[in-house]
């Protein structure tokens, strides 16, 4: 084989491999100038939905692109990357993870070839490392081959407090928060369009999931209320929901949860009694109630039991 024919064969192989690894672009909605979001399934991860259960997207500046969360699998991350390429040839300079949960981070590896900075809370890497084995085991159990190649890519740039990223005539304010949904929540605010990407600090229609602190979450909501964005991308649920009504609905659920758990503890009820009786009137108000509400009561009881 000549050098030229060997090169052609190698190029053909690379093309085939690249095609095999490509995905159709993820459907996107432009919710504000430069802001593109994907509306995910309101569900837990299944083979039917391919783990596409968290809202993800990207923001385009004049210089480069910031991706915000990457989805539940490498395949979804590749589909998101294709969606970016449908909109702009600009490089992806940042991949921002709003928190540690698998449905937001397992697409990161799709962007490795872009050589971006992977950005997250200063607490993100430790939280991911502590849960990595369990997350991967659950992902492979639920999705099988659909999860192939998915891996955790930790942050290369961390934020503790607030920091601003400049995409070129578009500044993003990143803000970390008191322990709430998790201990590593971070929001992204596009100053130019007034668009707030909340990560899972905001659930719309889908029941909020407490994997951190119900008290901290209520404190964070009080601060988020003051932001008054023009557009909002929640972590789960419809894009650009009515504001502040969507945040108020979540606040009401969490405040009632905290109140009822405190009352159960005051009456001397066991955690099982609290789980069996608290929040039954919320069943028809939230999607995925049967999956997460009892867990929320358990988490709130464990947090508030020793409250002074």
Shape: globular
CATH class: Alpha Beta
Overall mean confidence score, pLDDT:
93
Q: Helix count, per DSSP? A: 8
CATH architecture: 4-Layer Sandwich
Gyration radius from CA atoms, angstroms:
21 Å
Number of strands: 12
How far apart are the termini?
Answer: 79 Å
Poorly predicted ranges: 1-20
**Strand fraction:** 15-25%
Could you give the order of the helices and strands?
HEEEEHEHEHEEEEEHEHHH
Task: Report helical residue fraction.
Answer: 25-40%
Main sheet, how many strands, which sense, barrel? 7 strands, mixed
Compact description:
It is built from 8 helices and 12 strands.
Structure description:
There is one protein chain. The protein has helices at 3-21, 74-87, 102-105, 124-143, 214-224, 245-266, 271-277, 289-304; strands at 29-32, 35-38, 56-60, 65-68, 92-96, 117-121, 157-159, 162-166, 171-176, 186-190, 195-203, 231-236. Mean pLDDT is 93; it is low at 1-20. Strand 5, helix 3 and strand 6 form a beta-alpha-beta unit. Helix content is 37%, strand content 20%. The chain has one domain (24-304): Ribonuclease Z/Hydroxyacylglutathione hydrolase-like (Metallo-beta-lactamase, Chain A). By secondary structure, the protein is α/β, with parallel strands linked by helices. Helix 5 (214-224) packs antiparallel against helix 6 (245-266), helix 6 packs across helix 8 and helix 7 (271-277) runs antiparallel to helix 8 (289-304).
């Amino acid at each position: 084989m000549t050098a030229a024919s060997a090169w052609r064969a190698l190029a053909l192989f690379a093309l085939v491999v690249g095609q095999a690894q490509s995905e159709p672009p993820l459907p996107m909605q432009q919710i504000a100038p430069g802001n593109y979001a994907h509306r995910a399934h309101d569900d837990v991860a299944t083979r039917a939905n391919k783990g596409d259960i968290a809202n993800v997207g990207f923001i385009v500046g004049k210089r480069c692109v910031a991706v915000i969360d990457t989805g539940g699998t490498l395949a979804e991350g590749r589909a998101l990357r294709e969606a970016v390429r449908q909109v702009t040839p600009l490089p992806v300079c940042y991949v921002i993870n709003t928190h540690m949960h698998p449905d937001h981070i397992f697409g990161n590896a799709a962007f490795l070839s872009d050589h971006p900075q992977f950005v997250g809370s200063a607490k993100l890497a430790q939280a991911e490392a502590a849960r990595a084995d369990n997350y991967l085991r659950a992902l492979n159990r639920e999705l099988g081959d659909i999860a192939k190649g998915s891996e955790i890519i930790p942050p290369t740039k961390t934020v503790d407090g607030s920091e601003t990223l400049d995409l070129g005539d578009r500044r993003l304010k990143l803000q970390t928060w008191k322990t709430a949904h998790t201990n590593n929540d971070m929001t992204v605010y596009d100053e130019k369009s007034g668009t707030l990407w909340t990560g899972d600090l905001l659930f719309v229609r889908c029941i909020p999931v407490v994997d951190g602190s119900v008290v901290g979450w209520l404190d964070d909501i009080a601060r988020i209320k003051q932001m008054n964005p023009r557009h909002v991308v929640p972590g789960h649920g419809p894009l650009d929901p009515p504001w502040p009504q969507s945040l108020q609905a979540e606040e009401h659920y969490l405040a009632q949860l905290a109140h009822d758990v405190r009352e159960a503890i005051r009456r001397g009820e066991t955690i099982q009694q609290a789980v069996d009786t608290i929040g039954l009137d919320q069943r028809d108000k939230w999607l995925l109630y049967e999956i997460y509400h009892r867990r929320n009561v358990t988490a709130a009881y464990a947090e508030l039991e020793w409250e002074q």
